[in-house]
């Protein structure tokens, strides 16, 4: 076992705490990025010891979605490049649990570093007038859909945490149900700091949603992820559906479609794009996706 600062994220937390002490009497902006739980899954022993490996559950969905396209999933080469990983095929149950154990340990390690920085903020009395925005840059599959890593347009890879602490704004501890996107972060910070929001921003301030978490918000969130051969996957996430078009990046020709109905399957177990009952839904969602991000904005 080693001290937290033996790892990169512990050193970064130390640096952030030092910066807070140096800047406490000034207006400041600090951008702090932690590496974990990114691969490799390494963390001090005590964070592994927080979890009983035998109690770690295997994923509920271990098969590719019914009707998945050739573009839907990957061979998760990012993970296979590490020692003792199989070159192809599925991970067995013991290896899957070990990998999840490592992921859990890394999350707890990173969480502890966030806690150290927040404690430093409180110790200096800065927590009452400092905006803190915490987010993860993407999701991750831990054996879900029989796959690992990210690199897809599935919900589990594109949905990520975003937590905002804005003293005096909104209700602490509340959860907003509206669809939000990372492009909203910059205009939100501008809004909170009374800085004009630049016209080029593609997102919008989340403050109206923070102050009324039940209000109507965006029509949809948009994401994209590429595949080889000049193919791009564009995804529209509405309150009820996740719709993806795999398009030729040059011509725009739609090569494949995916539609997941979150009213019936939140784990995206079946691609229903070929189901005739969804034909009009697909037409509507395709038109909505084609309308672009501006058409999805919340009315404020």
Quick gist of this model?
The protein has 300 residues and is of the alpha+beta class.
Features of this protein?
8 helices, two-stranded antiparallel ribbon, alpha+beta, 300 residues, 4-stranded antiparallel β-sheet, single chain, 8 strands, Arylsulfatase, C-terminal domain
What does this structure look like?
The protein is an alpha+beta fold and 300 residues long. It folds into two domains: 4-130 and 142-150, no CATH class; 221-296, Arylsulfatase, C-terminal domain. 28% of the residues lie in helices and 14% in strands. The protein has eight helices and eight strands. It has helices at residues 8-23, 45-48, 77-80, 93-123, 155-158, 185-192, 207-211, 279-290; strands at residues 132-135, 141-142, 148-149, 162-165, 221-227, 231-237, 241-248, 254-261. It has a four-stranded antiparallel sheet with strand order 5-6-7-8, with helices on one face. The chain has a two-stranded antiparallel sheet with strand order 1-4. A two-stranded antiparallel ribbon has the order 2-3. Helix 1 (8-23) runs parallel beside helix 4 (93-123). The longest helix is centred in the middle third of the chain and has 31 residues, at 93-123. The protein is globular, with a radius of gyration of 21 Å. The mean pLDDT is 96.
* Percent range of helical residues: 25-40%
Class from helix and strand fractions = alpha+beta
- Termini, distance in Å? 52 Å
Radius of gyration: 21 Å
Number of strands: 8
Biggest sheet, spatial arrangement of strands: 5-6-7-8
Counting structural domains, the number is 2
N to C succession of SSEs = HHHHEEEHEHHEEEEH
- Name the beta content range: 5-15%
The coarse overall form would be: globular
Main β sheet profile: 4 strands, antiparallel
Q: What integer is the average pLDDT?
A: 96
Tally of helical runs: 8
The stretches of 5 or more residues where confidence is low (pLDDT under 50) are none
């Amino acid at each position: 076992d080693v001290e937290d600062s033996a790892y990169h994220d512990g050193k970064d937390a130390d640096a952030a705490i030092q910066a807070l002490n140096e800047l406490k009497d000034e207006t400041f902006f600090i951008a702090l990025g932690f590496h974990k739980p990114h691969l490799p899954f390494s963390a001090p022993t005590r964070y592994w010891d927080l979890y009983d490996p035998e109690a770690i559950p295997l994923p509920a969905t271990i098969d590719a979605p019914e009707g998945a396209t050739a573009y839907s999933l990957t061979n998760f080469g990012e993970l296979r490049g590490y020692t003792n990983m199989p070159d192809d095929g599925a991970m067995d149950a013991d290896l899957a649990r070990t990998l999840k154990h490592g992921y859990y340990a890394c999350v707890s390690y990173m969480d502890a570093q966030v806690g150290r920085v927040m404690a430093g903020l409180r110790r200096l009395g800065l927590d009452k007038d400092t905006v803190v925005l915490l987010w993860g840059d993407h999701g991750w599959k831990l054996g879900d859909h029989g796959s690992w890593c990210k690199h897809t347009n599935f919900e589990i890879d594109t949905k990520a945490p975003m937590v905002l602490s804005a003293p005096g704004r909104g209700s602490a501890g509340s959860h907003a149900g509206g669809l939000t996107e990372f492009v909203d972060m910059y205009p939100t910070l501008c809004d909170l700091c009374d800085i004009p929001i630049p016209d080029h921003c593609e997102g919008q301030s989340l403050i109206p949603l923070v102050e009324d978490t039940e209000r109507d918000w965006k029509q949809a969130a948009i994401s994209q992820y590429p595949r080889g051969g000049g193919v791009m996957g564009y995804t529209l996430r509405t309150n009820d559906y996740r719709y993806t078009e795999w398009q030729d990046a040059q011509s725009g020709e739609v090569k494949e479609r995916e539609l997941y109905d979150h009213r019936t399957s939140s784990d995206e177990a079946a691609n229903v794009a070929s189901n005739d009952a969804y034909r009009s839904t697909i037409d509507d969602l395709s038109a909505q996706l084609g309308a672009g991000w501006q058409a999805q904005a919340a009315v404020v």
